[in-house]
Amino acid sequence: MSNRLQIGDVSVGGRAWxxxxxxxxxLPFRRAASKLGAAYVATEMVACAEFSKGRPDVVRRAAVGxxxxxxxxxxxxxxxxxxxxGARLAAKAGAQIIDLNFGCPAKEVTGVLSGSALMxxxxxxxxxxxxxxDAVPDIPVTVKMRLGWDHAxxxxxDIAARAQxxxxxxxxxxxxxxxxxxxxxxxxxxxxxxxAEVSIPxxxxxxxxxxxxxxxxxxxxxxxxxxxxxxVYGRPWIAAQIEAxxxxxxxxxxxxxxxxxxxxxxxxxxxxFYGDRLGLRIFRKHLAxxxxxxxxxxxxxxxxxxxxxxxxxxxxxxxxxxxxxLWRDPQTRLAA
Length: 336
What we know:
Layout: E1 5-7, E2 10-12, E3 16-18, H1 27-35, E4 42-47, H2 48-52, H3 56-61, E5 72-76, H4 80-93, E6 97-102, H5 107-110, H6 122-135, E7 141-146, H7 156-165, E8 170-174, H8 192-197, E9 202-205, H9 211-221, E10 225-228, H10 238-247, H11 256-274, H12 276-292, H13 300-312, H14 316-328
Parallel strand pairs: 3-10, 4-5, 5-6, 6-7, 7-8, 8-9, 9-10
Antiparallel strand pairs: 1-2
Helix pairs in contact: 1-11, 4-6, 6-7, 9-10, 11-12, 11-14, 12-13
């Protein structure tokens, strides 16, 4: 199987994709993952209504960075006019693929009839897809969704068929319903019904954390690619590692010093992008994940203590020194 996937006129150089994740897949993270071999890393979810108003924090989520292999902007909304305007703005910003979010289960998103709430209104979902495709005819539009709202309404095959008919170029299916949130195991085999319904590429998502789970997900679903979500936390190299596993190639997981350099580069990029105060605050989710994947301490309580201490520090220099000390000396006990 080729490791390239054609999405409309765009050739994606891999079958292990990194999902759009709020608070995670910002530009510094996307740069870190891309440097480590990720072929596809989507932006954080961008709210179209606020995007069109130019709200700074929302515009920042769609930031284009130099050197990224692919620019994918994910949009969320429930108004076709806003979706169309968001698509045009994303295209103007340099998006090569525009993804529509029909899958977010968060109450603050579904509560305003966006994200996975759209799976309860296929007609509205279809109008949003049509609005985006018509607004940017030269840029591929894709859709990310769940199996359905709940067990009784697994309508992903129907929405995928509507997507294809409206000109959408690929769909990603998370193997859970909205009512499951992230409970239970992702049902990769249920994605096979979507694959049977459409001829456009299908990407399977949910519980994919390594080469073994990626192979199992592809086998069960018949999908064309996998999308990794929470499995990237603290491991921005994981897409490249999975890609190598799918290709049958060896992959050298970064050693301790390499992982430290990755964490520090990511941290400093975050400070440069946001400024020290905001950059430190936003980086804390990544910082906690890097500590969780540090070579030591081995004791769970010591690791929790180190994570808590580092994530409470307010000075970037102190954070950097503390992270280096923790990483290089197994006996380090950071002062709370």
